[in-house]
Design a protein that fits this description.
Elements: H1 2-25, H2 31-72, E1 120-123, E2 127-130, E3 139-143, E4 148-154, E5 160-164, E6 172-176, E7 180-182, E8 206-216, E9 219-228, E10 236-243, E11 248-256, E12 279-286, E13 295-303, E14 312-320
Antiparallel strand pairs: 1-4, 1-7, 2-3, 4-5, 5-6, 8-9, 9-12, 10-11, 10-13, 13-14
Helix pairs in contact: 1-2
Amino acid sequence: MDKRHNQVNAVLLAAFLLLAIALSACNFSPAGPAKDQDAVLTAAAATIAAESQQQTIQALQAKETSQELTRQAPSATPEPTDTPLPPTEPPTLPPPSITPPPPATQPVEPPPPQPPAALMLTANVETRCRQGPSQAFNTISFIRVGQQAEIIGRNPENTWWLIRDPQGKFGNCWVWGETTQPLGDASGVPVVQPPPLPTQPVTVNFSLSFVDFHICGGVAMATFRVTNTGTVALFSSNITIWDVTNNVGLAGPEASNNPFLVSASDCPPGFSSLPPGSSGFVTKGMGMLPAPGTKGRGIVVLCTQNNLNGQCLEQRVNFKFP
């Protein structure tokens, strides 16, 4: 700003000098022109002084304005203050985990070994199943040709098989190895100690009672109940029906190796044996019944072996024809 003020003053002074030179060159009278020249110089000096004062005032005003603006302008970088920081709270920790401890690992037991598949046998011929591995034991069941039964064990001599009763009535029983055949490898079959040989005397006995008539295949069947009260099994039968009133035979004799029925309403053939203490039914078919009320008689023979062999016993029972 001072440099510009000096430049203006120099310009004004130069103009003043040029004006003075011009006036001195003019043809004025000595008294008059000198007086006018002084007046001009005085006016020019006053003008320069006034202009210089005005510029100085303007420069001061501009400087004050600039300082005021500088004071009012916000500082680019604020001065640090002593404002206290808020208190720092301790960090909030999550509550402790209450995860239960894992359960104690139980030892895993291996699965039990699977039992081997049952070994079966079949009969080459109809074979009696006895209470022990000898013909001295009573027969309690049988196995038919082609029928299968589960093998439970064998005797020490490896000549008899202990099997489950094929008829499902008497538990286990023994069959002869010569008439039966295992259906697989029998080397692992365990040895079973047989019961002692029987010492009781062999007796053959049974009770007999008439039941009724029922129809099988269009034929009237006279039906009798038998109970083995002896010590040996019964295997074969021979049945005869007699007309007592007219003293004439009506049916039979007829032999059977499968005479024993489970129910009084069954039709033959039936089972081949009746063990001691067991009951069953036997029947005999008739072609024509006599008049109602005629007295009849049933004659039943049971033997300890097939084909009416071994020890046999005959029993009789009377009844009336319906």
